């Protein structure tokens, strides 16, 4: 291995080396204590079974490497007065982060009962992976954490999101070698093509190769050095290697390497900020190869433990009935010489206490990792200025998302340092391209002359496009959690790619909001699902899946919001609300194609504020001097289901003039839940007043029909609610044919009404026949002409 000249030096004096190694020993002692101890935190007496937890949970193997990195970053922070954020990617490596956060004092500041003394240390140990305590990964409870280690695959994209528009910050991102095997992480290495050194901070990736996962070797740890180096050169990095097991050598090598890479980062930034960005830099990164379970027991019961997979989790088990293991544990703990690290009171000795930085330079107290402290509200234009003119309901068409694009354009114009858009190659496809008028797509890879004709690329852009929903959403999450604002959009069917990311972010928000008062609110996670199921007649079956919202409804009502604006003005109102909100996951479902427009702006605001409401103009149960009880409730949610429900209502009013129909549109899906289950839910009294307690309800829904039944399962008289929605029927169809296949079309809705309104009975037989004939005729026309009849494509409300 050829090592650059600056790394041959020994930057640490003997005193510095001694102190840093002692601080790291203290970190390792705390890490072991968290996993095993519930009492006797400083080993003031021989270790006994009652001092050890009954259930041993946690992960030791990666922890020494994590605290080793943390210790050395502290030196860099003090040397340069540098803002550094620590992102811990390895799963369940919390002991390696919690320990230095406690030793620097950040932990005790937010949790005063975990004080920096023997009693506080006892509580600190006991809480770890213990009922009523904290988890074994870097959960929201961890000061300085902006990323859960158990969320494997997203550390690097989160790190880049933090670095965007944070020009003075270095984000040290530790990537576990198990995590490095995931698809999202492998793709995230390419995010260096979107980092602008003139205006952004830097990401310092540190690949932590300790060789093993739970019970297997890791891929990147078992390829040769040249292949590994070439891999990261191919990604566009300049890799540095810190490899070994001898602590003294490793401390000197890590210190020298960090000095070198930080100097390179500052040189790259200085050049870009002085002369502009002329080419993409080769950012440095570090490969740290250290033993799994470094400094732990070399072997247990005759089996190799250190530097092997057996040290991944808990190297010693069965403590309460295995005196031999108890002795190994005590010897292991005493090998760190806690009596040299802590005074009689149980406080870290002053010589080591002075090693970490102070105040907000501590990585556990950096406000960027509690981004709500830094969050500024967006400077928002008035969304009413982008309204579509709707002189009468359901008479004119517009592309719902195009006015939203103009609205987002001006939001970006007013907020050029704290708002970004993210989407996988679909900004223009989703009709949001107006944003390019104020900001192009950020791009630091090669730009060719022909790109000037429509590619919209710029090193200074603020729109990020990449065909990796994982990476884009990870970047937005990092951007939001560090105090900024973002907007993500993707095709509806492919939102499932980010299922697990939504799960983890929703859980993070839920815990932060309900249980951690010191975490300030952050901007909401705003996701637009467009190119929806009912307008995928050209792409076919693979692009038809509205099921992402089903997943969303499984999460805590504290953070989940789902909106189906039926037209452009409702979409603008919903988007304005979502972009102003905090601590929510807002899902907005709105198609990009031409759609009928139903409400003027003031009506849209009223409707969206309520979330659900009767459209009087489409109803005829309140036409006389005395309002009548409806015979039927026609309900709908989503743009195409709304149009088809309206068309069905028009047919019913023509065929059965005496039939009283109440027309209800749902914008806020969660209003269907009881108020006891969701803050936006209707009370049972409100629900029965709106839908009646006993009349048939025909509900035409955008997504899978069973979701509505799930949300309404506690409502009275369930049998009266009949839902139509997507049923996995479709391919290359015309829009109406696709609706017919899934029975959300106007004709099938009329048939359903005839079947479910008792007063119609056999009186509806002829209408039923006409509806069946219409289905046959329209499908035949579609197969012959490849399109729907004009009377369908350009249908308008006739009343």
What labels describe this entry?
799 residues; alpha/beta; Rossmann fold; 22 strands; 36% helix; 13% strand
Could you write a compact summary of the structure shown?
With 799 residues, the chain is α/β, with parallel strands linked by helices.
Write the layout of secondary structure elements.
Layout: H1 14-36, H2 63-80, E1 83-88, H3 94-103, H4 106-110, H5 118-127, H6 155-163, E2 169-176, H7 183-188, E3 202-209, H8 225-235, E4 237-243, H9 247-275, E5 283-289, E6 299-300, E7 303-304, H10 323-334, H11 338-341, H12 350-353, E8 397-399, H13 401-414, E9 419-422, E10 441-442, E11 457-458, E12 463-464, H14 469-481, E13 485-491, H15 499-515, E14 525-530, H16 548-552, E15 560-563, H17 568-580, E16 585-589, E17 594-596, H18 601-610, E18 612-614, E19 632-637, H19 639-655, E20 661-666, H20 684-691, E21 697-701, H21 706-711, E22 721-724, H22 735-741, H23 746-756, H24 765-785, H25 790-793
Parallel strand pairs: 1-2, 2-3, 3-5, 4-5, 9-12, 9-13, 10-11, 13-14, 14-16, 15-16, 19-20, 19-21, 21-22
Antiparallel strand pairs: 6-7, 8-17, 18-20
Helix pairs in contact: 1-2, 1-3, 1-5, 2-3, 2-9, 6-14, 13-17, 17-18, 19-23, 23-24
């Amino acid at each position: 291995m050829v090592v650059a000249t600056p790394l041959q030096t020994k930057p640490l004096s003997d005193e510095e080396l001694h102190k840093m190694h002692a601080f790291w020993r203290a970190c390792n002692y705390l890490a072991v204590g968290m996993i095993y101890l519930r009492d006797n935190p400083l080993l003031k007496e021989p270790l006994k079974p009652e001092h050890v937890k009954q259930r041993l949970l946690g992960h030791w193997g990666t922890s020494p490497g994590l605290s080793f990195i943390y210790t050395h970053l502290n030196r860099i922070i003090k040397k340069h007065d540098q803002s550094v954020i620590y992102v811990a990617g390895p799963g369940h490596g919390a002991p390696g982060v919690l320990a230095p956060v406690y030793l620097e004092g950040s932990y005790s500041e937010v949790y005063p009962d975990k004080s920096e003394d023997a009693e506080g240390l006892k509580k600190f140990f006991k809480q770890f992976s213990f009922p009523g305590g904290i988890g074994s990964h870097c959960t929201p409870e961890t000061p300085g954490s902006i990323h859960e280690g158990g969320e494997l695959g997203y550390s690097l994209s989160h790190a880049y999101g933090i670095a965007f528009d944070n020009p003075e910050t270095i984000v040290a991102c530790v990537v576990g070698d198990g995590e490095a095997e995931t698809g999202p992480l492998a793709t995230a290495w390419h995010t260096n093509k979107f980092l602008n050194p003139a205006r952004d901070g830097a990401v310092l990736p540190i690949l932590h190769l300790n060789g093993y996962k739970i019970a297997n070797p890791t891929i990147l740890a078992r390829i040769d050095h040249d292949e590994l180096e070439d891999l990261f050169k191919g990604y566009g990095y300049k890799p540095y290697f810190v490899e070994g097991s001898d602590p003294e050598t490793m401390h000197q090598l890590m210190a020298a390497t960090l000095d070198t890479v930080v100097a390179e980062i500052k040189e790259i930034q200085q050049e870009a900020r002085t002369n502009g960005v002329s080419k993409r830099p080769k950012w440095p990164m570090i490969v740290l190869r250290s033993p799994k379970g470094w400094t732990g027991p070399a072997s247990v019961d005759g089996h190799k433990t250190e530097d092997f997979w057996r040290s991944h989790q808990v190297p010693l088990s069965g403590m309460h009935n295995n005196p031999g293991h108890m002795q190994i544990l005590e010897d292991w703990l005493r090998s760190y010489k806690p009596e040299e690290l802590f005074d009689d009171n149980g406080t870290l000795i002053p010589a080591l206490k002075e090693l970490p930085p102070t105040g907000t330079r501590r990585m556990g107290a950096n406000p960027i990792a509690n981004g709500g402290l830094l969050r500024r509200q967006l400077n928002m234009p008035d969304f009413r200025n982008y309204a579509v003119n709707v002189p009468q309901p359901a008479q004119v068409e517009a592309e719902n998302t195009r006015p939203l694009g103009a609205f987002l354009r001006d939001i970006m114009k007013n907020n050029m340092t704290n708002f970004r858009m993210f989407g996988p190659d679909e900004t223009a496809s989703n009709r949001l391209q107006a944003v390019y008028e104020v900001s192009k797509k950020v791009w630091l890879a090669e730009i060719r002359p022909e790109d000037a004709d429509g590619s919209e690329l710029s090193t200074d852009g603020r729109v990020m496009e990449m065909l990796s929903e994982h990476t884009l959403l990870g970047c937005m999450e990092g951007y939001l959690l560090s105090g900024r604002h973002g907007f993500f959009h993707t095709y509806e069917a492919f939102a499932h790619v980010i299922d697990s990311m939504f799960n983890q972010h929703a859980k993070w928000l839920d815990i932060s909001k309900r249980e951690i008062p010191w975490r300030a609110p952050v901007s909401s996670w705003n996701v637009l699902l467009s190119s929806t199921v009912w307008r995928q007649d050209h792409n076919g079956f693979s692009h038809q899946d509205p099921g992402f919202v089903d997943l969303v409804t499984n999460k805590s009502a504290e953070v989940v919001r789902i909106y189906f604006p039926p037209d452009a003005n409702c979409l603008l109102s919903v988007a304005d609300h979502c972009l102003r909100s905090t601590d929510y996951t807002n899902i907005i479902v709105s198609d990009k194609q031409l759609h009928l427009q139903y409400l003027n702006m003031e009506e849209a605001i009223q409707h969206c504020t309520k979330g659900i409401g009767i459209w009087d103009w489409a109803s005829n149960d309140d036409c006389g001097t005395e309002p009548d009880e409806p015979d039927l409730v026609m309900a709908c949610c989503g743009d195409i289901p709304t149009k088809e429900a309206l068309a069905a209502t028009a047919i019913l009013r023509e065929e059965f003039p005496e039939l009283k129909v109440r027309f209800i549109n749902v914008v806020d899906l969660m209003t269907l839940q009881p108020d006891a289950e969701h803050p936006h839910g209707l009370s049972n009294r409100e629900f029965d007043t709106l839908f009646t307690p006993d009349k048939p309800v025909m509900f035409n829904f955008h997504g899978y029909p069973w979701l509505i039944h799930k949300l309404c399962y506690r409502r009275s008289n369930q049998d009266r609610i009949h839902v139509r929605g997507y049923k996995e029927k479709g391919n290359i169809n015309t829009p109406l044919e696709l609706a017919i296949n899934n029975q959300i079309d106007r004709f099938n809705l009329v048939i359903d009404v005839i079947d479910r309104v008792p007063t119609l009975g056999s009186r509806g037989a002829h209408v039923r026949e006409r509806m069946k004939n219409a289905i046959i005729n329209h499908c035949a026309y579609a197969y012959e002409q490849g399109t729907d009849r004009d009377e369908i494509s350009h249908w308008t409300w006739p009343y």
